[in-house]
Amino acid sequence: MTKIPEKRDFPVSQVRRYLEPGSIVLVSSKWRDKTNIMTLGWHTVLEFSPSLVGLMISGGNHSFRMIRESGECVINLPTTALTDTVVGIGNTSGADIDKFAEFGLTAEEASQVDAPLIGECHANFECRLHDDALVQRYNFFIFEVVKAHVAPSPEHPETLHYTGDGVFMVAGEIIDRRSLFRPEMLG
Amino acid sequence: MTKIPEKRDFPVSQVRRYLEPGSIVLVSSKWRDKTNIMTLGWHTVLEFSPSLVGLMISGGNHSFRMIRESGECVINLPTTALTDTVVGIGNTSGADIDKFAEFGLTAEEASQVDAPLIGECHANFECRLHDDALVQRYNFFIFEVVKAHVAPSPEHPETLHYTGDGVFMVAGEIIDRRSLFRPEMLG
Description:
2 copies of one chain form a homodimer. Chain A is α+β, with helices and mostly antiparallel strands. Chain A has helices at 16-19, 62-70, 83-90, 99-102, 135-138; strands at 8-10, 25-31, 34-40, 43-47, 52-56, 72-77, 107-108, 117-118, 123-131, 140-150, 159-162, 167-176. Chain A has a single domain (8-185), classed as Electron Transport, Fmn-binding Protein, Chain A (Pnp Oxidase, Chain A, Roll), CATH 2.30.110.10. Chain A is 16% helix and 38% strand. In chain A, strand 11 (159-162) and strand 12 (167-176) form a beta hairpin. The interface between A and B is large, with 60 and 60 residues. Strand 12 of chain A pairs antiparallel with strand 12 of chain B, so a sheet runs across the interface. Chains A, B: Pfam families: Flavin_Reduct. Chains A, B: Its cofactor is FMN. Chains A, B: GO terms for molecular function: FMN binding; oxidoreductase activity, acting on the CH-NH group of donors, NAD or NADP as acceptor. Chains A, B: Keywords: Flavoprotein.
């Protein structure tokens, strides 16, 4: 069993710290009393404040309609401790199974949305639909992160970056170049 | 000097292999006989075929107008060999300097667009503007990758994933889980 890290509130305007590196994320949703989880690698930060992120959610996913109808989701950041869980979630459909039960994950209550947090993940970002202008054309949802929960330790967890074809890259090692940045570029 | 890797044509429908992991990229552009380069971490894959990618290009960048007016750019994938170059490009403006000259980079001719390829990068993706529906509201450009050039070696180069605040994560180590995927999820 993966342990559940203790998390703290984190400023929503700073979630790029965890999302800009581009790891695969687990997106949890709830609609009509059912929950679901999908893996997602096609996402980007769009704005600091309001805290906006864009997610491309393929229409073939069981989660698509749940997120479309509820207008909510939670973006959860898994670490390498959850590698096989991430693969399992990506290989199954919420039409067939209860993914929280099947993969032994803990659904924790969110504070701003009905969709559950995944306790075992390093960070959880509660999201509300901000703009659906590109949903019909590209399945591209723009969400506002309305609440963020992050485990303070480890400071730089190992994350999974999907290349397709069953292969992940692992990011974890750090290069610090603060000293080379102009002050106004930091913070 | 960073050496210039030899590249081969690569299928545009498979660029997710290099972009989905979410590394920082260098975006080169050309407009009215001037070239420029910017660093960019806010991007996502949107579709396999046509090969669509979304880039959030902040209006404060000198590149913004060049890309907006020309409707073209090249997405270049730097490796850790170019770390200090990436930082330097992000810390300077094309309004003040010629970035190719300043950073000793080689502008190579593209085949489908006027914007130059950066020779020293591991991969180059020539892009043409596909949809500007969200440019005014979010500075979000949807491009079609019309031609891709990739160095066949190394197979998994070390890439830079920006967290903000002058700190990068490095991805390079590989986890192969092909054996756990359903066949239709691979390819």
